[in-house]
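Figure S7 source data.
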Amino acid sequence: MNPYVSSLMSDVQAKNPAQPEFHQAVEEVAESLVVVLDKHPEYRSAKILERIIEPERVVMFRVPWMDDQGEVPITRGFRIEVNSAIGPYKGGLRFHPSVNLGILKFLAFEQVFKNSLTTLPMGGGKGGSDFDPKGKSDLEVMRFCQSFMSELFRHIGPNTDIPAGDIGVGGREIGFLFGQYKRIANEFTGVLTGKGIHWGGSLIRPEATGYGAVYFAANMLETRGETLEGKSCLVSGAGNVAQFATEKLTELGAKVVTLSDSSGHIYDPEGINAEKLAWVQALKNKRRGRIKEYAAEFPGATYTEADPGADHNPLWAHKAECAFPCATQNEINVKDADNLLAGGVYLVTEGANMPSSAQAVEHFIDKNILFGPGKAANAGGVAVSGLEMAQNSMRYNWTREEVDTRLKMIMKDIHTATVGAADRFGTPNNYVNGANIAGFLKVADAMLDQGVV
Ligand code: NDP
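Tokens for the predicted NDP complex:
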């Protein structure tokens, strides 16, 4: 490890104990930035990276609520506001039992660079709760969201911090959160994105992360003179990002053969076509069922139960050309990376945030495959959130085509900026370095301009 990174990481680990995902995210960025800091001592002397690592504000609070049985579960809420150098804090809310301070700090830290890459004026933040919406009634989810917002509302605002959805926070939760904000603040503003289409939402926002990841993959393939047409693809997850990545891949002539949830994965060698995807969307978004049911519905498909003790995930061992991890962090370990490469995969596009472990990323880069890191590849979601904010400010709605065209353009610009930065700093084809460097430069210059604040 580079001596500067090694000393930085000792400090980060000492100051932020028991936050392995945060350490992982910081180390990756720091490694990429060594060449930049060597060339630009002004960033190092102003401690720009060290300042970005330290969030501007961390809010942690109790969320009291009552379940349908009259019990009072103890749940925690968080909002991490990391950096506001180029715009108000912006980033999703995650409701999942695995949520803790370290996971949200890693996500908020990543968000700073991602938002900068989108070319829109948005700072970075993230929040959420260890509340698990799975298996809860709509009324329980509503009571929880109302209690969560009763505290969060003090810390956010349309010009301060604008949360959105993430794992476990979709249209239903955003609705309940927005309703409570509006009631307490007595104002109808674009304080959240991912809103319903009839009350301030943007067309294409639900689709944006998945579509954007596929556009980014198409841009990467284009550098080799290829398209997605006819490519066999492994997709993980079955939520928002996975569903719309599958939709766009199928539309562009690729064949998606897997989907998953935390219980296991399905493999459908004939491909998950539009009709089957519509069935999955009804299963996941309306009935809130499990992906296992797919194999019972569609003959020819198989279901494999997840084994938490196993050293690899069998989803990544199927033969294919492309992989789109769209579930959660660290879902591809080094063994999975080997299996992917052995199975013929030469493009990995991260729909999820940090789904590949550090060692898996190293493998992909060593083998010179097309590897699109989440910071760049899944930035389409927050980019369209930025477009939703712009539409809210104008009190006007763009058409589906207008938003989609802008999304495509933004993904192309992110691709160009990423490739350009990787080239300029001597690591051509390395999208990880390219994304980290391009994202950093804009924030770093803004921080220099604004002084020590
Ligand atoms: P959803 O809640 O809609 O779906 C998440 C999916 O991943 C579900 O199928 C879920 O299965 C699965 N999953 C979640 N946690 C785990 C786990 N610990 N192990 C295995 N599977 C798991 O979330 P999204 O689709 O919105 O988010 C997916 C990823 O994309 C996340 O990393 C998120 O941060 C990232 N992302 C999302 C954006 C967005 O706009 N929504 C924007 C940018 C990134 P189960 O139902 O069993 O929990």
